[in-house]
Amino acid sequence: MRRKQIGGQNMLVKVKTNFFGQPELEIENPTFRKILLELSNRTKFSIFNPVSNQIHGEFKVYLNGVEYEDPSHGIDTELKEGDKVEVTLVVLSGG
To answer: What is the pTM for the complete model shown?
Structure first.
Protein backbone atom coordinates (compact mmCIF):
# COMPACT_ATOMS: atom_id res chain seq x y z
CA MET A 1 0.00 0.00 0.00
CA ARG A 2 1.34 3.45 -0.84
CA ARG A 3 0.26 7.01 -0.68
CA LYS A 4 1.39 10.10 -2.51
CA GLN A 5 2.97 12.76 -0.43
CA ILE A 6 1.41 16.18 -0.64
CA GLY A 7 3.29 18.52 -2.96
CA GLY A 8 5.83 16.04 -4.28
CA GLN A 9 6.47 13.03 -6.47
CA ASN A 10 7.52 10.81 -3.55
CA MET A 11 5.39 7.83 -2.64
CA LEU A 12 5.49 5.65 0.42
CA VAL A 13 5.72 2.06 -0.78
CA LYS A 14 5.04 -0.89 1.51
CA VAL A 15 6.75 -4.06 0.39
CA LYS A 16 5.87 -7.42 1.87
CA THR A 17 8.78 -9.83 2.37
CA ASN A 18 9.36 -13.11 4.19
CA PHE A 19 12.88 -12.08 5.26
CA PHE A 20 12.71 -8.41 6.28
CA GLY A 21 9.17 -7.79 7.46
CA GLN A 22 7.19 -5.11 5.65
CA PRO A 23 9.56 -2.21 5.08
CA GLU A 24 8.21 1.14 4.01
CA LEU A 25 10.24 2.70 1.23
CA GLU A 26 9.90 6.38 0.37
CA ILE A 27 10.77 6.60 -3.31
CA GLU A 28 10.43 9.37 -5.86
CA ASN A 29 8.49 8.21 -8.93
CA PRO A 30 8.74 4.54 -7.85
CA THR A 31 9.62 1.93 -10.42
CA PHE A 32 10.16 -1.78 -10.00
CA ARG A 33 13.94 -1.20 -10.37
CA LYS A 34 14.04 1.49 -7.67
CA ILE A 35 12.10 -0.69 -5.23
CA LEU A 36 14.32 -3.75 -5.78
CA LEU A 37 17.51 -1.66 -5.51
CA GLU A 38 16.37 0.06 -2.31
CA LEU A 39 15.27 -3.22 -0.77
CA SER A 40 18.61 -4.81 -1.75
CA ASN A 41 20.48 -1.90 -0.13
CA ARG A 42 18.49 -2.11 3.10
CA THR A 43 18.69 -5.89 3.47
CA LYS A 44 22.14 -6.48 1.95
CA PHE A 45 20.57 -9.26 -0.16
CA SER A 46 21.29 -9.10 -3.87
CA ILE A 47 17.76 -9.54 -5.17
CA PHE A 48 18.45 -8.83 -8.83
CA ASN A 49 21.24 -7.99 -11.23
CA PRO A 50 20.87 -4.32 -12.24
CA VAL A 51 22.92 -4.89 -15.41
CA SER A 52 20.99 -7.86 -16.83
CA ASN A 53 17.77 -6.98 -14.93
CA GLN A 54 17.37 -10.63 -13.96
CA ILE A 55 15.95 -11.60 -10.58
CA HIS A 56 18.29 -13.95 -8.75
CA GLY A 57 17.00 -17.52 -8.55
CA GLU A 58 16.55 -17.61 -4.79
CA PHE A 59 13.94 -14.83 -4.94
CA LYS A 60 10.39 -14.66 -6.23
CA VAL A 61 8.94 -11.22 -6.89
CA TYR A 62 5.24 -10.49 -7.22
CA LEU A 63 3.44 -7.41 -8.47
CA ASN A 64 -0.24 -7.31 -7.55
CA GLY A 65 -0.17 -11.06 -6.81
CA VAL A 66 1.34 -12.05 -10.17
CA GLU A 67 4.87 -13.45 -10.27
CA TYR A 68 7.13 -11.04 -12.10
CA GLU A 69 9.61 -13.45 -13.66
CA ASP A 70 11.23 -11.33 -16.36
CA PRO A 71 11.28 -7.67 -15.40
CA SER A 72 13.80 -6.79 -18.13
CA HIS A 73 11.04 -5.40 -20.35
CA GLY A 74 9.26 -3.45 -17.65
CA ILE A 75 11.77 -2.87 -14.87
CA ASP A 76 11.56 0.91 -15.26
CA THR A 77 7.78 1.08 -15.47
CA GLU A 78 6.41 3.47 -12.87
CA LEU A 79 4.20 1.83 -10.30
CA LYS A 80 0.75 3.16 -9.57
CA GLU A 81 -1.05 4.06 -6.39
CA GLY A 82 -2.27 0.85 -4.78
CA ASP A 83 0.16 -1.53 -6.49
CA LYS A 84 1.30 -4.32 -4.17
CA VAL A 85 4.88 -5.59 -4.23
CA GLU A 86 5.98 -8.80 -2.53
CA VAL A 87 9.50 -10.25 -2.49
CA THR A 88 9.97 -13.80 -1.22
CA LEU A 89 13.24 -15.54 -0.40
CA VAL A 90 12.87 -19.17 -1.48
CA VAL A 91 14.44 -21.42 1.12
CA LEU A 92 15.73 -24.71 -0.25
CA SER A 93 16.57 -27.57 2.03
CA GLY A 94 18.56 -30.64 1.22
CA GLY A 95 18.27 -34.02 2.67
So the answer is: 0.78
